[in-house]
Amino acid sequence: MTGAEPTVAPPVPLLNAANVLTAVRLLLVPVFAATVVAAGGMIHTGWRTAACLIFAVASATDLVDGWIARRWGLITSLGKVADPIADKALTGAALVLLSWYDRLPWWVTAAILLRELGITGLRFWVIRHGVIAASRGGKLKTALQILAITWYLWPMPTAAAVVGPWIMAAAVVITVLTGFDYIAQALRLRHRTR
Questions:
Q1: Which of the 8 DSSP states describes residue 134?
Q2: Three-state SS for 71?
Q3: What does DSSP assign to residue 104?
Q4: How far apart are alpha carbons 172 and 178 in whole angstroms?
Q5: What is the CB neighbour count within 10 angstroms for residue 24?
């Protein structure tokens, strides 16, 4: 015997805390959307408050599921695919509904969604060459988007509501800039593996 046999880690079960939280986020998307619709064009403050709280809870599951997956080694192929889908579904639903009810210009929704879908597609395009990890800019982008959407959803007094477009403008700028950064990373990754 030449030494200790290498240990093989047991496979990570698909039904784990991180994946359950991702599933909860996906399930909250239609609940959130129905609550926004029930707000009657974003007029009924009680329903708007409920929609905002549902969005905030669903967004929080994104932070928690990633931390749990990394902390306890619960990263699965399903989680790698489902997590970004859940994120885009939640953010996309919020942006589309805000634009539908004339709270947010459609070009903002289009710019963010095109970037998000494009980068998600780009990640899948290069996945066999490696993983494009979320950068600090990407995390800042996510935080700004969540903050801006939450600001728009919450029934703010007029004096405070005017801050929302500034937060959203910052979110759009960071979203676009980080999009270019991810494209550069993907091209470098493919170039290195050729």
A1: P
A2: helix
A3: S
A4: 10
A5: 14
**CB-based burial label for 113 (10 Å; 0-12, 13-18, 19+):** middle
CA distance 58 to 139: 16
pLDDT per position as a tens digit, 83-137: 888 989 999 999 999 999 999 999 999 999 999 888 878 877 776 766 666 667 8
Q: What are phi and psi of 11, to 5 degrees?
A: -65, 145
Q: CA 131 from chain center: how many Å?
A: 17
The answer to whether 108 touches 99, Cβ cutoff 8 Å, is yes
What domains are defined for the chain?
Answer: 17-192 (1.20.120.1760)
Q: What pLDDT score does 122 carry? A: 81
Structure tokens at 132: 């494009």
Decide: residue 40, CB within 10 A, 0-12 exposed, 13-18 middle, 19+ buried.
Answer: exposed
